[in-house]
Each structure stands twice: as C-alpha cells, then as structure tokens.
Design goal:
Blueprint (H helix, E strand, L loop, with lengths): L1 H12 L2 H7 L2 E3 L7 E5 L7 E5 L1 H7 L2 H14 L10 H15 L2 H12 L7 H4 L2 H14 L11
Parallel strand pairs: 1-3
Antiparallel strand pairs: 2-3
Length: 152
C-alpha cells in the first residue's frame, strides 16, 4: 500500500501539471508580448513566465491558453534544450495548452487565431488559420473542445 501511495505521489510530482504550479508567473505591464518563458536558476523549474497583465485583460480568456502554452514549454523542457526546432517547440506547446488549458481558454484562443491574429513569425508559429486548426484538433483529441464541431 505504501508503494502504491508513493507511486501516486511521484506521478503527481513529475506530471506536466506540476510544472504549471512550480513555475512562477510574473506580471510585467511593460513586457511587449502576451507571455514568454525566461531562464531563472532560482526557480524550482529553472524558469519563470513573464506575462503582460494589460494585454491579458484585453484578450480575456485567451490569455489563459497562452500562459498554459508557456507552462508547456517548461514542462516539456524546451528552456533546457535549445536544439529543438522552434516550430516543433511551438507545436508541442500548443498541444500542451490545448490539452491542459480550460476549454473556454482554448476556444477563445482558437477564435483569436481564426480572426487572423497570431505572431507575425509564421515560420515558427505557422499561419493563424493553420494554428487554429491545429489547436482545435488537439483539443478535440482529448475532449477539451467546446467550439463548433466543423472547426477542424
């Protein structure tokens, strides 16, 4: 019985969600983007997430998706492995966010992408339309999708 409990505790400690709770989020209204991961050796995960609370207030629930996306980078070790191709990092972090963000946050981010909003760096993030389809497909795979059924 004690090994069973120890196994559960280890699983929880090393789960992707543990990175979300252990990585500090720091608001910075002068940061010129929604959110990003930065190295920080004093953090339990070796990283911090800086986010702009003003932008987050303006984009509403979509901010939750982007913050979980950044936690995905940490959980997946992207901040420790610079050799992963940038497109692959963003693809994986979008999958993480589509899986672990609240359904309304995923849907609101999808709406953002469908409306044409995304990073101008298409080589890294792909077109907004393709990113929207990808996020929708990821969320549908794990039943975290509340948007239109024909969306992806």
């Amino acid at each position: 019985m004690k090994y069973f409990i120890l196994g559960i505790l280890l699983t929880l400690y090393y789960s992707p969600l543990s990175a979300q709770t252990a990585t500090p989020e720091i608001p910075n209204a002068s940061y010129n983007d929604i959110a990003a991961v930065f190295p920080d050796p004093t953090s339990p995960t070796g990283a911090v997430i800086i986010y702009n609370p003003t932008i987050c207030q303006n984009i509403g629930a979509a901010c939750g998706f982007f913050r979980v996306h950044e936690h995905g980078h940490v959980a997946l070790g992207h901040h420790l492995n610079p050799h992963i191709h940038p497109f692959q990092r963003e693809f994986d972090a979008d999958r993480f966010a589509a899986t672990y963000a609240a359904p309304n946050e995923v849907f609101t981010a999808w709406q953002f992408f469908v409306s044409g909003w995304s990073s101008p760096n298409i080589a890294v993030y792909d077109t907004p339309a393709n990113r929207a389809k990808r996020v929708c497909a990821f969320a549908k795979q794990i039943n975290n999708w509340i948007g239109p059924t024909h969306a992806c």
